[in-house]
Amino acid sequence: MIPAATIAPASTPRRRESREAVEMFAHFRHGARRCTVMLKDLTRHGARIEGHGALQRDEAIGLAFPGLAPVLAFVAWCNGPCAGIEFAEPLRPQQYESLLRDHALPALRPDPPGSGLPLVA
After folding, report:
1. Residue 115 located in a structural domain
2. For residue 65, is it within any domain?
3. Residue 116 and residue 73: Cα distance in Å, rounded?
4. Angle at 62 between CA 58 and CA 63, to 5 degrees
5. For the domain that residue 38 is a member of, what is the CATH number?
6. So what's the pLDDT on residue 59?
7. Which residue segment(s) compose the domain that 40 sits in?
8. Which pLDDT does position 17 carry in this prediction?
């Protein structure tokens, strides 16, 4: 029998980056179906969307963010009207920062570089 102290705890999957809370509309495309969805959180690698129909894991979708060209993404998980998606290619840092600047929730919005202002509590 192996002593309990030598058994490694089960690993918990870790995100590559922390999620940023946002509220923005995006144009969603899944096959011939198109609609507008709400993004609720965002990283450079993916997002959580709400307001679509049923999706299956690993399905390909298209998303068009405000002011950006459409991106290809894949469904990572789906729970009713919510889904986690992973972008085929991470957003470029400039794209990501622009989306956060314009759509992050006010209490969580990052300050402009060099502003020296504290975050709103």
Report:
1. no
2. yes
3. 36
4. 120
5. 2.40.10.220
6. 94
7. 20-106
8. 67
Q: Indicate the number of domains in the chain.
A: 1
Residue 61 lies in a domain: yes
Count CA atoms within 13 Å of residue 67 on its CB side. 11
Q: How far apart are CA 96 and CA 82, in angstroms?
A: 21
Please give the structure tokens belonging to residue 18.
Answer: 């922390």
What CA–CA distances, in Å, run from 31 to 54, 59, 60, 63, 116?
A: 13, 10, 9, 12, 46
**Average pLDDT by consecutive 10-residue portion of the chain (121 residues)?**
40 61 93 91 95 89 92 94 95 93 74 47 40
Q: Is residue 49 part of a domain?
A: yes
